[in-house]
Specification:
Length: 346
């Protein structure tokens, strides 16, 4: 129904406006707990064989929603009814900010891809933390993806991550330190070895002071070289973070089959979707092999089919996440992946 009826209509309109319209519709139709349970029965496979224990957390199934779709934690219960085993909210910053100028979200249908330069648009971490207190879905794992405000200089970035960490600590199950978005000026400089170690050590020192520390993951860019990936492996070992999310969007534009002039007219932004699939899997495979499976990897990037997800799991991912594939393929993709995982006995 989604691919043949809803998607063609949605794709006639501005992608950001459709995003908010869809959110409003889901909020309206799934506001009742009874309706959410009915929808969940249709979309969710409940099988103990799907459960995954990663970083000490028990995930109901390995398929999660990547950060970026539910930035402000407004729809996590409704999205969980579609079959996700985890929802990652954010990226959140200490202060609310509007993000980059519109238009900032673009579809490339021939490539089944999206280019975005949203720029961490959100209403601030405190608002999201309040919403998370009202979680209604039992067993749902919530991840908190945190970043820095656009106007915060990199030398003071640690403070922004600390503020977000403290604000979300009691409401999320795990954290994701996002230093890999291409849409906040100079953010990716924090992926350099020394600044990244400093940031992660700061977060982990704070985490260790808690009675029950939470798993902390690092989200990395697909554009890192093998030498930089070697640094990531070393940093994970040194800082003792839980693992890595591979990968964020890419600044690369090859290979694309969309009209070159159109792509150039869009300009800057992170590319997600099918063109990212190969590189994302390469990064997962490299990290898994080179580290001797020393830490869990959450695989994200270009998952548009059950086979795509299986490929990432076989490459070394412990869990997978959807974003662009969810937009192009619809909510049925979650159930398809979980069925395939059961068939493959992974």
């Amino acid at each position: 129904m989604y691919k043949f009826l809803l998607k063609p209509v949605f794709f006639l309109f501005d992608p950001e406006k459709v995003h908010y319209f869809t959110f409003d519709c889901l909020k309206f139709f799934l506001r009742s707990g009874f309706i959410r349970r009915l929808v969940s029965r249709s979309f969710t496979i409940k099988d103990p064989k799907l459960q995954r224990t990663v970083a000490g957390l028990v995930f109901p199934n390995p398929v999660g929603l990547a950060a970026g779709l539910d930035k402000d934690a407004k729809l996590f219960d409704e999205l969980a009814a579609l079959g996700f085993g985890s929802i990652e909210i954010g990226t959140l910053t200490p202060k609310g900010q509007p993000g980059n100028d519109k238009p900032r979200l673009f579809r490339l249908p021939p490539d089944e891809a999206i280019i975005n330069r949203m720029g961490f648009n959100n209403h601030g971490v405190l608002e999201a933390a309040e919403r998370l207190k009202k979680k209604k879905t039992p067993g749902l794992i919530i991840g908190g993806n945190i970043g820095k405000n656009k106007l915060t200089p990199n030398e003071e970035a640690d403070n922004d991550y600390v503020i977000c960490f403290n604000a979300l600590f009691d409401q999320v199950d795990y954290f994701v330190v996002n230093v890999s978005s291409p849409n906040t000026p100079n953010l990716r400089a924090l992926q350099d070895k020394e600044p990244l170690k400093k940031l992660l050590n700061t977060v982990m020192q704070l985490n260790d002071q808690k009675d029950k520390p939470k798993p902390v993951f690092l989200k990395i860019a697909p554009d890192l070289t093998n030498e930089q990936l070697d640094d990531i492996i070393e940093i994970v070992a040194e800082t003792k973070i839980a693992g890595v999310i591979a990968t964020n969007t890419t600044i690369a534009r090859e290979p694309l089959i969309s009209d070159k002039a159109k792509v150039e007219s869009i300009g800057m932004g992170g590319l997600s979707g099918k063109p990212l699939a190969k590189r994302s899997t390469e990064v997962i495979r490299y990290l898994h092999a080179k580290s001797n499976a020393a830490f869990p990897i959450i695989g994200v990037g270009g998952i548009h089919s059950a086979e795509d997800a299986i490929e990432k799991l076989k490459a070394g991912a412990s869990l997978v996440q959807l974003y662009t594939g969810f937009i192009y393929e619809g909510p049925g993709l979650i159930k398809q992946i979980n069925k395939k995982i059961l068939e493959e006995k992974l």
